[in-house]
Each structure stands twice: as structure tokens, then as C-alpha cells.
Amino acid sequence: MTKDLTPSQLVVLGLIARHGPMTPYDLKSKVESSVGTYWPVPHAQLYRDPPRLAELGLLREDAEEHGRRRRVFHLTGAGHEALREWLADPTTPEPETRNPALLKLTFADLGAPGQVAELASAQAAQHRRWRDEYRELRARLDPHAPDTTARTRLLTLGIAHEQGYVAFWEALAADPEGTGEPGPEPGSP
Description:
5% strand, elongated
């Protein structure tokens, strides 16, 4: 069954499993504060997926009878089992990368001299900002929150990922005719 579920549906199941019953609006907020930085989910999708998952028996819907008439979705036993089945499979599809800077770098040799160094300097600065933001987020994690371990892992990976980009872009900015291969770390033999 999990092979038929979309990544956004798996996000919905995972967030409800971790945080308890949620409305689509609650899901939107949780996506923004968790997976949204590396797996954006359109807001409209977060309103379409829960009813679909309820039709499949993976969620149960309770609608408020009065007031705002919010739709609250709960994980069912089948939903929990589908999530476990997905998590038990260690394989994943190939990652998708759509990085506008890499696209520009592909054709940089067709541009004016100096543009590679400018692109590299700008990208190094951007990746330093992201790396530093991830460090701050990791430092501010609530040690008692149920997703602290998962978020720590992701932020640690994000920091390492951004540091790799910083090293590449800084090396390319320093030597725009080079390959971007970082030199030895300062103080290393």
C-alpha cells in the first residue's frame, strides 16, 4: 500500500503520528517548522491529502459540529501500519536537485569574465547564512520535544551539507578558473 502513497501523504501520516490529531491548518504550520525547508508541500496539498487518506482508512476524520467546523484528522491503526511499512523499507528514490546556482554554473563559461567569481562569492555568502541558521535552530531545540532527535539529525546533516557548499563556493571565488576543489584546511600538513 505505501508504494501508492505520495511523499506529501507520507508527511501527513508522519506528522499526525508524531504530534497527534491535526487539522489541515495545523499540518501547514508543522510542515513549515519541520520538513518544509527540504521537502516543501503546497498548502493546497495539505488540505487535499487528509480526506484522501481518510478514504483509504489511514486517517479518521472528526468534524466539529459548531463554531469553525474544523476537520480534525486522527491516525488509524492502518495508517500507523502504513507508516511503519514505509519506514521499514531502507530504499528511497534518487534525490531530486533543482539548484539554480548549479544551472548557472553549468553555463558560466559562456558569460563575461568575472561572473564566476561573483556567483561564487554570492553563493558562499548564502550558504554561510543557511549553515549559521541551521546551527541556531539546532541550538534552540527543545530537548523535551518528541521530534528533537530527528530534528537534530536533520540539522546536523544540513550544517554539513551547507559547509560543503561553502567550501566549494569559497574555493571557486578564490580561483574562478579552478575546479572549486577546496584546498587543505588551515593548519593541516
